[in-house]
Amino acid sequence: MKKIGLTTTVPVEVLIAAGYEPVDLNNVFITSSDYSKYIDIAERDGFPKSLCAWIKGIYGACLENNIKEIVGVIEGDCSNTKALIEVLNLKGITVYPFSFPQSHKKEDVEVEIRKFMDIFSVSLENVEVVRKRLNDIRKLAKELDELTYVYNKATGFENHLFQVSLSDFNCDINSFEASLKLAIETIKKREPLNKKLRLGYIGVPPMTSDIYEFVENLNSHFVYNEVQREFAFPRADKALDIFEQYYDYTYPYNTEFRIKELKKQIKDRKLDGIIHYTQAFCYRAIEDIVLKQSLDIPILNIEGDKLNTLDARTKLRLEAFLDMLLDLKESQKCEY
To answer: What is the pTM of this model?
Structure first.
């Protein structure tokens, strides 16, 4: 199968139906043992230091891994992607644009997906066959999610890793399905984690994945990964077709639509607090203002840049925030 790079989650059903192997360049970048080399490649080619590390990482991963075709999301994701795909075009890489319309009307979503299907010459019937196959795996991801927040057996990192991988199914649907099934069977046999604090992680997936282990050592457990869960399309089984599925996807649309789902998950998962991760030089950091005013729950905003581990200052801020949440929880118990 021909490989095709992704700058973020897109309707992979279309690409798979067209005979492609989707490769999420974000995952290639961040899971590399030498992830910084991708950033260095971009900066050597002229990308400024004051630019999101993810964009530079995607660029470097695309060139270094000899990706010749790419889908660039020009509406509904990073505002820098338009410039990124222009540079990739100059490098001789074929770019296919895709948009999540900001109108967030189902008919507009359908228009964009139909245009996408026309580009790759695939029918709705073929796309729906693939969607059904992928949704079987997405059901497994829902089971893993329940093992995290209902049974407290899966770690926050496991929840993060498997759900974020559903953007491209680790480039091998059958192999990924087998590894997910094995993980679920292993996790089911564990004793519950039983941490005092139940946390939500919101915002883009982190550069600093050690955040999960760090909070667990402070008597806390991430039982919700917002964007990673959206990549796994947890409501796909309720969607009548691919148009409805991508219309109901919160990540690329307005904050108001996103907040409705956040409020539901805060209640359902009985969260004590939220860590809102933002990336340096990313416009999404501004959304923290809206989220803090709209959500009735303590929120700590932390920012990542090039490092793939937490720095000392961020660790101190996390410790202070979690101490505050523990005190708050104890005082609420005393009131009863």
So the answer is: 0.93
For residues 271 and 181, membership in a common domain is answered with yes
Q: Is the pLDDT of residue 336 over 60?
A: no
Answer yes or no: do 113 and 159 share one domain: no
Report the half-sphere exposure of 107 (CA within 13 A, side-chain side): 0
Structural domain boundaries enclosing 226: 124-335
Report the CATH number that the domain containing residue 203 is assigned in CATH.
3.40.50.11900
- 247 and 272 in a single domain? The answer is yes
Q: Could you read off the pLDDT of 234-246 as tens digits, one per residue? A: 999 999 999 999 9
